[in-house]
Amino acid sequence: MILDYETMRLIWWALLGALLIGFAVTGGFDLGVATLLPFLGKNDTERRVIINSVGATWEGNQVWFVTAGGALFAAWPMAYSVAFSGLYFALLLTLFALFLRPLGFDYRSKLPSKKWRSNWDIALCIGGLVPALIFGVAFGNLLEGVPFHFDTDMRSFYTGSFWALLNPFAITAGVVSLSMILMHGGVYLQIKTEGDINQRCKTVVTVFSLLTLVVFALAGIWIANIDGYQISSTISPNAYSDPLAKTVIKAPGLWLANYSHYPILWLIPMSAFVMGTLTLLLSKLDKPGLAFISSSLTLAAIIVTAGVSMFPFLIPSSSALNSSLTVWDASSSLATLKIMLWVTLIFLPIVLTYTTWAFRVLRGKITLDHIHKNDHTAY
Amino acid sequence: MISESIVDLSRWQFAATSLYHFLFVPLTLGLSFLLAIMESTYVMTGKEIYKDMTQFWGKLFGINFALGVTTGLTMEFQFGMNWSYFSHYVGDIFGAPLAIEGLMAFFLEATFVGLFFFGWDKLGKGQHLLVTWLVALGTNLSALWILVANGWMQNPVGADFNYETMRMELSSFGSLLFNPAAQVKFVHTVAAGYTTASAFVLGVSAFYMLKGRDAAFAQRSYTIAAGFGLAAILSVIVLGDESGYTDGEVQKAKLAAIEAEWHTEEAPASFTAIGIPDQDAMETRYAVKIPWVLGLIGTRSIDTPITGLTEILEKNRQRVRNGMKAYSSLQTLRAGQRDETTVAAFNLNKADLGYGLLLKRYTDKVVDATDEQIDLATKYSIPRVVPLFWTFRVMVACGFAMLAIFVLAVIASSIRKCRQNWLLKASLYMMPLPWIACEAGWFVAEFGRQPWTIAEILPTFLSVSSLTELDLYLSLAGYICLYTVFLVIEMFLMLKFIKLGPSSLHKGRYHFEIASGASL
């Protein structure tokens, strides 16, 4: 049987990555747009143009995130339980910030009051900025290792603090994710708008594509010097999910081990630089549609770089090395992985089909005129 | 041992956030269908007023929907955040329906809700109608999957404990999906949602009729809500999920607790309409009993007895003892000694492992538990009767009150003479009832499952995350503050738009837009 446990685990590692990329590419632009809102919109109508550029689609985009969470729960329950309880306040902060989005989008323009609207604009900005930053900070912490261990009943204990999450490397990773999301949001907004806002977007894309690439490069140099992790015992990729059955070592530079084994993998981080530069150029040349594709690929390349560097680790433990969660020992049972694969194979194409249809129906620029005409129905 | 205060705080937080979430869900479930019905009428008759109805009730739907989405995020996150051992122990099974819910339902609902609001000018009539129906389908499918997950917590079928991974693992997806407990709960819950939305539309329309505003709009809305509501409340009552309480031992204990049935009665059991239950004495004082009724409701037969709590406790005492044996074998297995005899010994008592885990509340060394500790664990193995007994009766009373009003409302919709002011007032003041009933219903379902998160498998107190009291105080305070502010804002907007009525659509033909104040 080709679909043995090892293959299924690899597939689910890839699928989790695909869902995260799906979220970055779709939810990423609306987080970016929301963050840019108070800075790019100089008056109420302009701000409504910006909000309505994502108003009809942000809700569907966010489902990528919710589904990635569900998939993590279903396919990697240990990773879900360790990460969500360990990074408790980081998650709580993200959650509280995300709360502001449905309310901000839906409630903001329901009342004419200036104060009401400007407060919701700030709320929407926070709702974009905080998650965009924290997702990166979380990835940074995963790369550094999270202080947790299991007892014999497989109950997990997190021994770090919230403030420890905000260390320099993690913040650097946070800057990468925030700036790439701002770049992406800028590109999307460039597609959906015209005139002044459109021009301002170009500046945003220039600044944040450069920042993304510079800080991404910095993080890359940094990662060569921080502790990476490696399984030091024999790997049994078809065994039951028991994280305590292996031994793990950590040493500086181990996160680059995969690249020295398979040098072709260098193409992934390199493509992030190529695509990022291309995004900048295409945006400048007023080809925002193509820039959106290259921006999406930049995001994908950056996420895949992080995943590939850590492979097979999902959550390395910095305090009890052997408790680390890897692709080989933190998954669901084979039966669950298989059923979930079938469900995904059936429903993901359907989702992609109607999502594409929805974007097609809603294509076209949002103009100042459009807002004036739809004063009572637009967000 | 896990601190009681951590367990209590985690439970309070879950109760608060989930009950709060369910203030918005039932309206979304039902209103999405009512919108689809209204828009279907528009497409079939071509009358603009039905489009206005879809758009106006859609506005209120949107205000409610936003908070449903907001509070739903918490639900998805907090299994991992606050119930991490639960997530580890049963994630293999429980995670699947949640992930499927995302793929099959949330995407549908969320993608098309955007088109519902912003697609009026971009889509053909038929296309937009399809979009509205897909929103309704999406919301209801999401209810299906979440109740498959919840039904499994009540009656965990199709799963098996694996000592290698120290968790439950899926053995039959079919059993999980077709779990009778889940099916009954699904029907009961969505019907409750339809009832809620109908009561909402009925009440608000009655308000306009009492004010003499927008008569044509209000009467049509009233009629649709009355008809849909009557069908819904009948389904809720007839397909009450008490009929699912014969599946699974914990469901039986829940039923006995709801009815304060201390001892097994000869079939068919009588129904205690009212009384004062006393758990220590195991008796109900001043009980008013109606013969046969409980047996009929609970078992749909006249010859199947309903097990009483005394008998359940007796059985559970033995199961705690078996659980100790299972736990002892499990310790040996986990220590690495995996010979056939140990595996066989474990398999023999595996079904009672959860009852052994109940002892962890009283001792760390489950295997050496004293008789006194076994006694305590046994007593702890059934839910507390008094809160269940009363909450259930509150729910049922709300249900029957709504039934009466919906019946009258249907009559009044067809016979003009019957449209009396007192009935309209009753329709208006009835509005809180479905929410009270929904919240009471969830309380009965979840409190009645105690002391378990997963019936007979994982006790609630073991399910929590390894957090500190401070962590929980901070997060609970955060939720309470934010949710309170959100609720105030939502109610403010809701009331504002209800007061404005269809005039808020700016179509130029409703009450506040017409100088004379006369309605359409």
Topology:
The complex is a heterodimer of chains A (379) and B (520).
Chain A (H helix, E strand, L loop, with lengths): L4 H36 L3 H12 L2 H18 L1 H10 L1 H20 L6 H31 L3 E3 L5 E3 L3 H4 L2 H25 L2 H29 L3 E5 L16 E5 L4 H5 L5 H18 L3 H23 L2 E3 L9 E2 L7 H28 L6 H6 L6
Antiparallel strand pairs in A: 1-2, 3-4, 5-6
Chain B lengths: L3 H42 L2 H35 L1 H35 L6 H30 L4 E4 L4 E4 L2 H5 L2 H32 L3 H24 L10 H10 L12 E8 L4 E8 L2 H7 L9 H26 L5 H10 L3 H5 L13 H10 L4 H30 L6 H9 L2 H16 L4 E3 L3 E2 L9 H32 L20
Antiparallel strand pairs in B: 1-2, 3-4, 5-6
Helix pairs in contact in B: 1-2, 1-4, 1-6, 1-16, 1-17, 2-3, 2-17, 3-4, 4-6, 6-7, 6-15, 6-16, 7-14, 10-11, 10-13, 14-15, 14-16
In short:
With 379 residues, chain A is mainly alpha-helical.
What would you note in describing this structure?
The complex is a heterodimer of chains A (379) and B (520). Chain A has 379 residues and is mostly helical. Chain A has helices at 5-40, 44-55, 58-75, 77-86, 88-107, 114-144, 162-165, 168-192, 195-223, 257-261, 267-284, 288-310, 334-361, 368-373, and strands spanning 148-150, 156-158, 227-231, 248-252, 313-315, 325-326. Chain A has one domain (5-373). Chain A has a two-stranded antiparallel sheet with strand order 1-2. Chain A has a two-stranded antiparallel ribbon with strand order 3-4. Chain A has a two-stranded antiparallel sheet with strand order 5-6. The longest helix of chain A is centred in the first third of the chain and has 36 residues, at 5-40. The radius of gyration of chain A is 21 Å and the shape is globular. Chain B is mainly α and 520 residues long. Chain B has helices at 4-45, 48-82, 84-118, 125-154, 173-177, 180-211, 215-238, 249-258, 293-299, 309-334, 340-349, 353-357, 371-380, 385-414, 421-429, 432-447, 469-500; strands at 159-162, 167-170, 271-278, 283-290, 452-454, 458-459. The longest helix of chain B is centred in the N-terminal third of the chain and has 42 residues, at 4-45.
